């Protein structure tokens, strides 16, 4: 099933993101965690892809298992920036052969050794290059791409970022998923601006439940997300008590999701980080709202 057909339904839904193992040794435990999440019957599940090799090998195995064994629509991530045309075309052929209909087209982070180099000879410079490649390989793919309510860290300003986003969408994206954010007003503001800029595809908000103190530093470093005072207070009070922090982080994410539903969003994507207990608790908190 295509993601676009799921997220445009009026029924409220949750979807979850998982990531593949880095090594073969971790495969069985990651697979088991993703299967536990699949048993919650989310609307769909996405499987991330390590830029430049890394954890890319197992993305397809995990996605295919979720689709074939659990009937969960799978969204396969694919990055392009440090790959050759040959590798990307091979991956696309494998995705097609596995019967995966949904692909998240990403540039990926530029590896440290490539930063500042002349990009003119690169096979892929931006995610838009991959969107075009995927569209050409299979006009039937449902293609998603990333967007940034707080602008991408490499962008000069939001106007420029949204301008490039519009080009990426026009190249053939069916929907967008956002970077994590901790203040819903940032999303509402962003939606207003992209609609004004003529971007009309559905936007799926991505919510990251912060359940331990270390994760905060890591997440902020990676995403550059703004931490509202309300969240900082919660961290100050509960950050040194792991169980309390987990409960508070789940409650905060739940609150964000309820507010998004109340403001017209129908599907929210949860960065569940291979943690079935967290996915289950969030879903349980929303059981009556979701009718589950
Ligand atoms: P792009 O859309 O190419 O944008 C990157 C930057 O280039 C932006 O600043 C943009 O404004 C600018 N830009 C775009 N086009 C042009 C142009 N023509 N000329 C000049 N500038 C331009 N990473 C992974 O490695 N694996 C994953 O599975 C993964 N999943 C993700 C899922 C989501 C929902 C999100 C939000 C991010 C994900 N990432 C993942 C991280 C992502 O790869 C990085 O954020 C990366 O730095 C940018 O990727 P992009 O696809 O948004 O790039």
Provide a descriptive summary of the structure in words:
Helix 7 links the parallel strand 6 and strand 7 (203-204). The protein has helices at 3-7, 27-38, 59-70, 85-97, 127-137, 158-170, 184-196, 213-223, 229-238, 242-262, 276-285, 287-290, and strands at residues 13-18, 45-47, 74-79, 102-106, 142-147, 175-178, 203-204, 206-207, 267-270. The mean pLDDT is 94. Strands 7-6-5-4-3-2-1-9-8 form a 9-stranded parallel β-sheet. Helix 9 (229-238) packs antiparallel against helix 10 (242-262). Helix content is 46%, strand content 13%. The longest helix is centred in the C-terminal third of the chain and has 21 residues, at 242-262. The structure holds flavin-adenine dinucleotide. Flavin-adenine dinucleotide (FAD) is lined by residues 48-51, 77, 79, 106-109, 126-128, 146, 152, 154-155, 161, 164, 168, 177, 179, 206.
